[in-house]
Amino acid sequence: MTHGACKPLLFISDLHLQDRSPELTNALVRFLAEQSGSCGALYILGDLFEVWLGDDARSSCVNRVSDALRDFTQSGSKLFLMHGNRDFLIGNSFAAQCGAQLIQEPYRLGTAHGDIILLHGDSLCTDDLEYQHFRNMVRTVKWQSEFLSRSLEERERFAQQARAQSQESMANKTEEVLDVNQQAVLDCFVSNGCPRLLHGHTHRPAVHAVPLEKPIDGKFEATRMVLGDWGTLGWYAVVSDETWELRHFNISS
Ligand SMILES: [Mn+2]
């Protein structure tokens, strides 16, 4: 693959879209319209939606988003969707409607700056044992096919209970427990043999330089870029021939 005339790659995550926050859906629609054509590909690294009960559960928000994503891909930009901890049930049917391809984490992306490992980020939060237990359960094929076979009302009830429980237990967890575990981050660099990592989930946008004991790719320092969630600000990362950086813009409500 040559990188000579590559259009920029964009990365977003954690928009948590839902009918209740039309200003965020509007911000995404504007963002897509501005970037379509000039952007080579958009990678959505999870939690595009606040909740996903199945591709058959439609809402005005979901319809607006799928229309805007389809316009974006029809204009010539590629679109890749990764699951987050809230929308891990997005299926091939929704992806096809948007012209998107679902990708699994860890996803290794070749760029002009070397390979970058893409993750949603929740797999790095290993101090939150309760959440990791839940994650292991709901990420099995068996659990998912059983859940998707239930009625929409039953699925909605389950999602409400899960959210109430998670909010209750999150109130008792420290900031450290809810952030990434540093050893999990190091293990990720080592196991992938790659000193560059890009993820979301923690809602703590930053670019971290991580010292390495043993060099990876000849480097004693790895980079962990964290996308921010969308609220009063919208966050995205840009990878072009010239730069690899985190950017943000204002979202007026
Ligand atoms: Mn998340």
Question: What is the CATH homologous superfamily assignment?
Answer: Metallo-dependent phosphatases
- Total number of β-strand segments? 11
Order of helices and strands: EHEHEHEEEHHHHHEEEEE
Mean pLDDT: 95
Secondary-structure-derived class: alpha/beta
| Heteromolecules bound | manganese (II) ion
Helix count, DSSP H or I runs of 4 or more residues: 8
Largest sheet: 6 strands, mixed
Helical content band: 25-40%
What is the CATH class? Alpha Beta
The total tally of domains equals: 1
**What is the rounded Rg?**
18 Å
Q: Strand order, biggest sheet?
A: 4-3-2-1-10-11
**Contiguous runs where pLDDT drops below 50 for at least 5 residues:** none
CATH architecture: 4-Layer Sandwich
Rough shape? Answer: globular
CATH topology: Purple Acid Phosphatase, chain A, domain 2
Distance between the termini: 42 Å
Percentage beta strand? 15-25%
Structure, described:
The protein contains eight helices and eleven strands. The strands form two sheets. The protein has a six-stranded mixed sheet with strand order 4-3-2-1-10-11, with helices on one face. A five-stranded mixed sheet has the order 5-6-7-9-8, covered by helices on one side. It has a single domain, classed as Purple Acid Phosphatase, chain A, domain 2 (4-Layer Sandwich). α1 packs parallel to α2. The chain has 253 residues and is α/β, with parallel strands linked by helices. Helix content is 35%, strand content 24%. The site of manganese (II) ion has 8 residues, from loops. Manganese (II) ion binds next to loops.
